[in-house]
Amino acid sequence: MSFVFSLLVSLGAFLFASTVWYITSSVDYFFFIWHPTLMAMVILMATQGIAILQKAETRQEKEGALNFHKLMQSITFLSVIGGFYITYTFKAENNAEHFTSPHGKFGLITFSFILIQSIAGSTLVNFPGVVGGAAKARAMYKYHRISGYFLLPLIWLTALGGTQADWTKSQFDHLWIWLTAAGMVLVGTVGNINSNKLKVR
Ligand code: HEM
């Protein structure tokens, strides 16, 4: 069953990201399209990076999954900085007010949360001395895991908000596709939490 749930997560994340990339590659080019393009990468990488850890069971699988997780979340980190920079400078250049829509406000919170989560996770793995040594760092993994499970729905809600922004709807207005993708990821991720009882490591 764990395989089916993981497949649902991957397909859902890919459906969402590829739909965004379909939109951004079909509209006339302008600087802003890099915002949804990069944020779709955030959705795909952040979601996959969690799914892979959920599936790992043996020690060897966990080691491989942790490496994959680091890679995926590093791409997430860089993409979210890029995606935020694009929308922020685009609005600044057009003298538009920042963080006015619910998506923009949620986006600012989500952006900050991703930065904190990534920096904290990377510190635990790469600089365990900061928290008092490897054993202490390992004991703190569970906080990183729990906050990750808060962050993932926040990322998805923010991205769903982006799909309902006026510009996006003027290009592509099929809510059912976004909800199908999010629903697949929700079922798959929650299903895998239960089957592994949160024992990621
Ligand atoms: C985790 C993913 C995302 C984050 C963190 C995020 C973040 C943000 C932020 C902070 C703003 C406001 C910038 C400002 O006011 O200076 C914004 C604007 C915008 N975003 Fe996103 N975004 C995400 C995903 C998406 C997606 C997937 C789309 C489209 C499919 C999208 C479309 C838009 C649009 C059209 C705006 C301009 C209108 C508005 O401010 O509401 N975003 N985003």
From TrEMBL:
It is found in: Membrane. Its main location: membrane. It comes from the Eukaryota. The keyword Iron applies. Pfam families: Cytochrom_B561. SMART domains: B561. The chain crosses the membrane at residues 29-51, 71-88, 108-134, 146-163, 175-193. Keywords: Electron transport, Heme, Iron, Membrane, Metal-binding, Transmembrane, Transmembrane helix, Transport. Residues 1-198 form the Cytochrome b561 domain. Its cofactor is heme b. Coiled coil: none annotated. One of its GO terms (cellular component) is membrane. One of its GO terms (molecular function) is transmembrane monodehydroascorbate reductase activity. The keyword Hydrolase does not apply. It is a multi-pass membrane protein. This is Eukaryotic cytochrome b561-domain-containing protein. It comes from Glomus cerebriforme. The lineage of its organism: Eukaryota, Fungi, Fungi incertae sedis, Mucoromycota, Glomeromycotina.
